[in-house]
Amino acid sequence: MVISDCCQQAMWITNLFGEIGFPILPITICSDNQGSLFISSNPVQEKQTKHIDIHYHYIRECIEDNKVSVVFVPGNDNLADMFTKNLDRVKFVKFQEQLGLTFGPSRNV
């Protein structure tokens, strides 16, 4: 469901930028959940996924139309964890540097 919501937001941004003359290439959505990637990429309706409402399958259309792509990111390398979880110092500094959020000279604390 989260990947589908992210896809909807990405399509909104893509359409907005397209209207003002800045076309955007297909957007890559990263996830650390292999099950959700499988469901989003395969149009098969499994018995275990019947509870997922049909509007959450919007991402399948976007993938087929090459508007977005979904890729697996291992949990240890998932930058989104910085915004959603309490991290130890090593992971926090690693993600901070990857996002370019280092300010001034680094300090060893």
Detailed description of the structure:
This protein has 109 residues and is mainly α. The protein folds into 2 domains: 2-73, no CATH class; 75-109, no CATH class. Helices cover 43% and strands 9% of the residues. The chain is built from 5 helices and 2 strands, in the order αβααβαα. It has a two-stranded parallel sheet with strand order 1-2. The longest helix is centred in the N-terminal third of the chain and has 18 residues, at 2-19. It starts with a helix and ends in an 11-residue tail after the last helix.
Question: Strands, helices and their partners?
Answer:
Layout: H1 2-19, E1 27-31, H2 34-41, H3 58-64, E2 68-72, H4 81-84, H5 89-98
Parallel strand pairs: 1-2
> Taking strands numbered 1, 2, ... along the chain, how are they ordered across the largest sheet?
1-2
What is the element string, with H for helices and E for strands?
HEHHEHH
Mean pLDDT: 79
Number of strands: 2
Query: Number of domains in the coordinates?
Result: 2
**Distance between the terminal alpha carbons, to the nearest Å?**
39 Å
- Count of alpha and pi helical runs: 5
Instruction: Categorize the overall geometry.
Output: flat
Low-confidence stretches: none
Residues in β-strands, percent: 5-15%
C-alpha-based Rg, rounded: 17 Å
| Sheet with most strands | 2 strands, parallel
- Structural class category: mainly alpha
Q: Could you estimate the helical fraction of the residues in percent?
A: 40-55%
Label this structure with key terms.
mainly alpha; 2 domains; 5 helices; 2 strands; 43% helix
